[in-house]
Amino acid sequence: MNNVLLKVNGKYFGGWTEISISAGIERLARDFNVTITRQWPSSGENLETKIAVKNGDLVEVFIDDDVVLTGYIESLPIRYDAGSLSMGIVGRSKTADCVDCSAVPKQYSNSSTLQVIQDLVEPFKLNVSNQSTDAGSLSIQADQGDTVFDVISKIMGLKQIIVFDDEQGQLVIGDIGSDEAKTALILGVNILSGDAEKSIKDRYSDYFVSGQSIGDDKNFGKATLSSVSSSSKDEEILRYRPLIIKQSGDSNNGTCQERCEMEKTLRASKTREATYTIQGWRQGDGSLWKPNQMVVVDDPLLGFDSEKLVIAEVKYSLSSRGTLCELKVGPVEAYLPEKKIKNS
Questions:
Q1: What count of other Cβ atoms lies within 10 Å of the Cβ of residue 11?
Q2: pLDDT, tens digit, for every residue of 198-207?
Q3: Which residues constitute the domain of residue 308?
Q4: CATH of the domain at 32
């Protein structure tokens, strides 16, 4: 059974004719959109055109007894035509404010990664859970005009971690693929449809990264700037397609080469992304499909031979097509945050 209920102001609302709930590791806030459609009464009697909730209300979204989203109602769309009226509720996780709103400009020096992120989200009354094996410490600047998510994105690049939201609307610092799916995705068994672009438009034959290294009295006799650069080649791209990247901050040959390899690997891995549609929202053991789970994919049509991939995005949907789950999957390397280096 997959019954979706919204709990608002102590009351439960259900009976939706269309449902969409999405969560993923490439976003900071999950979202939902539910709709109920009613026919105009032939008797001409008044039809109730309001749902007893309002924008800004705190909402919990349940699938049966499982909470899948905690956040706020953001819109209440109403649409009608000659034969029917539809009313909806749309909202996002509590973490949506971190995506939309500005961070307080501030310098953090050699601070715990957990403490920095907690400080950034504290004005929004959010908590942070550290599930990463190596969150460590860092120095970073929250610049004027940065959103909270902008600063968190910088942190992800520095520490090569991911930050996403959980079912309670709180932030999670995690490692990619830290959980295991219980059910495999198998062509001819539970896969209804598969979709993969396999595009190379964002891949290049040659990657060049250049930057500047700041010298000092010890290394160069006096403070100075020197140019550094590195390159890497993607042997699978046969025609000449160069990409030149300027590295910010204090660079060296090692960081430039690391950026080259990261760009090549990430872009090649993105080529292998796929989206699968399956029946129902639960795995064989009854648990919901969730983002950041490693799943075995056996699909020779899309080139996967019992390969372990990470679930980057989950979308639960209900419509005239039935109760479906869309799973966006790809290699772990496809979701590593863009590597950044510390500014001096």
A1: 10
A2: 999 999 999 9
A3: 179-198+272-335
A4: 2.30.300.10
State which residues of the chain have pLDDT below 70. Answer: 1, 41-50, 214-226, 249-250, 339-344
- Please state the domain count of the chain: 4
Whether residues 103 and 190 share a domain: the answer is: no
Global pTM reads: 0.90
pLDDT digits (tens, 9 = 90+) for 223-238: 556 688 899 999 999 9
In a domain, 342, yes or no: no
